[in-house]
Amino acid sequence: MKTTSMVRADTRGDMPTPGESRVGNRLHICLGFSCNNNCLFCMEEDREARFQRLSNQTAEDVRRMMTADPDAREVMFTSGEPTLHPQLPEYLEMARDLGFPTVGMITNGRRLSNRAYARKLLESGLNHILISIHGPDAHVHDGLTRTKGSFNQALVGLANLLLLKREYPALKVHTSYVVNKRNYRLFREFFDVMLPFRVDQHVFNVMMPEGRGREFFDNLVIPYSMVAAEFKKFTDALPPEGLNRVFILDIPYCTTVGIKDSARGYVERYFHYEPDSTVLFQDGRTPDQRRPEADAEVYSRKVMSGDKHEYSKVTKTVHDQMVRIKRPECEQCGYNHICRGVFTSYIDRFGWDEFVPVQRKGDK
């Protein structure tokens, strides 16, 4: 499908600096209702529900998503494994022709081990790739993905992208490392293994206790303070050029005050579109079972009509409000205005002791 070429305002291609919230113009488009990994911490553990949610999504629906909000400047294809979707190259071309400066995807990287396929995606307009790799070796990574060979295939994918960067110098390659009990002491080993691939940025996402993360909470979730201590040790030993390429995400600011500001703490913001029939709130009710005034507080209802669905716009901010909490003491913290709080399930298990309000310079 070809679309009329458009031009959108460009923005910096790097990650935000601490405290910024400028990623609200990122549109996530959920494509994959299947995945060739089987990660222990997957937030979308119900694959049948994901299939039901996405199977009726059409190419025209995807185009509508990309044109519904004129302020969106970055599109990221995600959910399940997007490289398994046969129309991914078509959607990348669509995003490029619609003028998005950044056209990206979140992937396990396995299909990128086929260099011809990787080149096809770049030819179609892909210029930002975030590859999920969760350890420095196959033992750790494959154990977490529960898929033998997934680590080696991802590394071949990274090697292919390194070669293809010669032809596509605008390409940005990031890694995403889900931090958990099995790998939180392996930051430096992972960083060193990645050096030959010249990755632009390593994003360390502290595991969120959602989906399978709730099921395997006791096996995988560790206190934030322990993660922060290991990450501080790791970053303190890095040279400046290395420090500029690492970042920790999804960890409350008050637990990371010892970590250099350049490596911590921005508020991730993005939005996506969900069929109305699949939007569920924390209390288990659907939108039609809630008061209209309550709906408005949680998401933008029926903002887009698709071929087979009415779609709602759901933001990361709204999702966080549904699953995270704060306590009154948080109002005293200098980070309160940008902090999203702590997962309710985390507090239920570990309590509030490690969360101490921070007095920032200039705070009264």
Layout of helices and strands, plus pairs?
Elements: E1 26-30, H1 47-54, H2 59-68, E2 74-78, H3 88-97, E3 102-107, H4 115-123, E4 128-132, H5 138-145, H6 150-164, E5 172-179, H7 187-194, E6 201-206, H8 212-215, H9 217-220, H10 224-236, H11 240-243, E7 246-249, E8 271-275, H12 292-298, E9 300-305, E10 310-315, H13 316-323, E11 324-325, E12 342-343, H14 344-350
Parallel strand pairs: 1-2, 2-3, 3-4, 4-5, 5-6, 6-7
Antiparallel strand pairs: 8-10, 9-10, 11-12
Folded structure, characterized:
With 364 residues, this protein is α/β, with parallel strands linked by helices. It has one domain (22-273, 313-324): Aldolase class I (TIM Barrel, Alpha-Beta Barrel). It is 32% helix and 16% strand. The strands form 3 sheets. The chain has a 7-stranded parallel sheet with strand order 1-2-3-4-5-6-7, covered by helices on one side. A 3-stranded antiparallel sheet has the order 8-10-9. Strands 11-12 form a two-stranded antiparallel sheet. Helix 4 links the parallel strand 3 (102-107) and strand 4. The protein is globular.
Quick structural overview:
With 364 residues, the protein is an alpha/beta fold.
